[in-house]
Amino acid sequence: MNRAGERALPDLILLTGPTGSGKTQLVCSLDSNLFEVISFDSRQVYKDLPIGTACPSIEEQGRMPHALVEFLSSDQSMDAKEFSELAHQAYQRILEKGKVPILVAGTGFYLKAFLYGMYPIPDVSEEVHQAVLDLPDELVVAELKEKDPEAFQEISSNDFYRYRRALEVCRTSGSLTRFKQETIGGLLRSKDKFNVLGFFLDWDREILYSRINTRARNLLIPMAEEAKLVREKYSADCPGLKTLGYNFALDFLDEKMSLDSFYEGIAKAHRNYAKRQITWFKKEPLLQKVSWDFAMEKLQEVQLLVIKNK
């Protein structure tokens, strides 16, 4: 029990930020005897694509264990519900070891599903799934607007994966919006009070974009080689190769674009993705907007507090 005036240990730590913000570097500076990471990144799940998804390296994972990275083949897919169930299991395993869980998130939707729960989406038949998958994007948008305009408005512009998922539900049960009246699951709903320490790594936009550009320049050829191997094994249409940037890698392999164009496409795509991540995480009330150095300082303080309470 903490004495009066003593800081309480957090039940969990949230570390979020856009791509290129240094989340992995930060958590790998901590003591893995005290902490473990659960990665909330919908693309780092692919074991065939560690380069293009900027997955923590083998050396980094040796310094700090990361759950939910590199466990799925590129011919498989996973939705937020399935991911959330695996994250709950990983969270419990970390607690059983007497460690503090750190949730490192680049995918805000998956993090939100885990923390706050999800509405109970009905099962969609393979027939409906395939029919919606075969529709051109413009017809998906038109039908969803007609069947459930509220659901359409809540989905980010040009997020055709979620447009299709919403339309599948509409074709199955009439409307997605009506399912939002009931929420199930959610870690923060499982007990009355959670002590959460949450950070959003905020960078000067020019510096962040420079970091993203440098990363993009360094991964071009390795990413293309990675894409080549996955295409040969599974096909260019496999779910893994729908990950951001691999369309450019495939075009480069097929000599449809130059190396410079490959770089420009990758860099721009990741800068735009960073913008969307920033917009998403800025809306999350659990997160403090902080610099990388401030987050490091505060996490080092938590580490000392964990040691003191051992």
Describe the structure.
The chain is α/β, with parallel strands linked by helices and 310 residues long. It has helices at residues 23-27, 58-63, 80-96, 108-116, 126-133, 137-147, 149-154, 160-173, 205-234, 246-253, 259-282, 292-309, and strands at residues 12-16, 35-40, 66-67, 100-105, 196-201, 288-290. It has two domains: 12-118 and 184-309, P-loop containing nucleotide triphosphate hydrolases (Rossmann fold, 3-Layer(aba) Sandwich), CATH 3.40.50.300; 126-181. Strands 3-2-4-1-5-6 form a six-stranded parallel β-sheet.
Basic shape: globular
Query: What order do the strands of the largest sheet run in, or round the barrel if closed?
Result: 3-2-4-1-5-6
Helix- and strand-based class?
A: alpha/beta
How big a fraction of the residues is strand?
5-15%
Share of residues in helices: 40-55%
Task: Please sum up the structure shown.
The chain has helices at 23-27, 58-63, 80-96, 108-116, 126-133, 137-147, 149-154, 160-173, 205-234, 246-253, 259-282, 292-309; strands at residues 12-16, 35-40, 66-67, 100-105, 196-201, 288-290.
